[in-house]
Design brief:
The protein has 179 residues and is of the alpha/beta class. The protein has one domain: Rossmann fold (3-Layer(aba) Sandwich), CATH 3.40.50.2020. The chain is built from 4 helices and 9 strands, in the order βαβαβββαββββα. The strands form 2 sheets. The protein has a 6-stranded mixed sheet with strand order 4-3-2-5-6-7. Strands 1-9-8 form a 3-stranded antiparallel sheet. InterPro entries: HGPRT, Hxn_phspho_trans, PRTase-like, PRTase_dom.
């Protein structure tokens, strides 16, 4: 797997340091709240788990599974809800946990869905932000790192279901996914 990586962008140590910083900021804000963390599966699973262990307040964990990629490496722009929440979020603060903000379609869809269900507030915590790919106006409230417009894998992010288990974030070699 490591041979398929063109360049490591963020090591496990760099990720841990940044997650500590994000967790401190989020804990300070939500210390007296009882938010629902909504992990966007499957990519945000690793990020959500590592962040959740750092958050020092009462919370519920839930997840949604959405898809906008069908079977390609390019977003279709059409978001489909595959697995819905199990918690009632009415009048609850919600923190969406996302692996990467890319085109913005998924998070735009989720923010509207959660607002329509009566969330008290909705914030986005994302490990990565790729602003050069944005097609829909969406901004993260808590961002780990900004990344270039490259195919990013590792630390939960995948290509064709692979590379999620890499302990770092890296750029996938074009030869791996190009037709």
């Amino acid at each position: 797997m490591n041979n398929d990586i063109e360049k490591v962008l963020y090591t496990q140590d760099q990720i841990n340091e940044r997650l500590d910083q994000l967790a401190t900021t989020i804990t300070n804000k939500y210390q007296n709240e009882f938010p629902v963390l909504v992990s966007v599966m499957t990519g945000a699973m690793v990020f959500t788990t590592d962040m959740m262990k750092r958050l020092a307040f009462k919370l519920n964990l839930d997840y949604v599974d959405v898809s906008s990629y069908d079977e390609s490496s390019e977003s279709s722009g059409q978001v489909r809800l595959v697995q819905d929440l199990s918690h009632d979020i009415t009048n609850r603060p919600v923190i969406i946990m996302e692996d990467i903000i890319d085109t913005g379609h998924t998070l735009h869809y989720l923010k509207k869905l959660l607002a329509d269900r009566g969330a008290k507030s909705i914030e986005i915590c994302a490990l990565l932000d790729k602003p050069d790919r944005r097609e829909v106006e969406v901004e993260g409230d808590y961002i780990g790192f900004k990344v270039p417009n490259e195919f990013i894998v590792g630390y939960g992010l995948d290509y064709d279901g692979l590379y999620r288990n890499l302990p770092y974030v890296g750029i996938l070699k074009r030869s791996v996914y190009a037709d």
